[in-house]
Structures are given as structure tokens and as C-alpha cells.
């Protein structure tokens, strides 16, 4: 399984939908709160070119927003 990372904020609805999707499918993920972690926010922007959340990393692949079909395909679901 590819490593999964989500850059999110506590108030982001789509971030919570993505995290629930991972939990429902038993996908382990690492989460960074970019509302408070400025270093991870900078890292997110460097990787994605975006300030919006969620930014989901699946291996080396970047998904901006929660695109369920794309995330599912990258995870092999």
C-alpha cells in the first residue's frame, strides 16, 4: 500500500469526508493540520501549487480536493 498523507484544516468539510473515506476503507494515513503547522503548509504548497485543502498525497501522486474516483483508483479500490 502506498503511503497516504492528507494536508487539512479542522473546519474543512471535504477534508473530513476524505478522512472518513480512509477510515471506512481501513486506509492508514498521516494527517497534517496546515491551519497551525506553517512548515507543513509550505510543504503542501510546494508539492501541489495550491493553498486549498485537502491536498492528498498517495505515494508521489497529488490529489487536490477530494476526488473520490481518483483517490480510489490510486489506492487500488
CATH class assignment: Alpha Beta
* Main β sheet profile: 4 strands, mixed
- Rounded radius of gyration (Å): 11 Å
Number of strands: 4
The CATH architecture name reads 3-Layer(aba) Sandwich
CATH superfamily: Glutaredoxin
Whole-number tally of structural domains:
1
CATH topology annotation: Glutaredoxin
Helix content: 40-55%
Distance between the termini: 11 Å
Strand order within the widest beta sheet: 2-1-3-4
- Percent strand: 15-25%
Q: How would you describe the overall organization of this protein?
A:
The protein is of the alpha+beta class. It has a single domain (4-75), classed as 3-Layer(aba) Sandwich (Glutaredoxin). The protein is 40% helix and 22% strand. The chain has a 4-stranded mixed beta sheet, sandwiched between helices. Helix 1 links the parallel strand 1 (4-8) and strand 2 (30-33). The mean pLDDT is 96.
Question: Nutshell version of this structure?
Answer:
The chain is of the alpha+beta class and 77 residues long. The protein has helices spanning 13-24, 38-48, 68-75; strands at 4-8, 30-33, 55-58, 61-64.
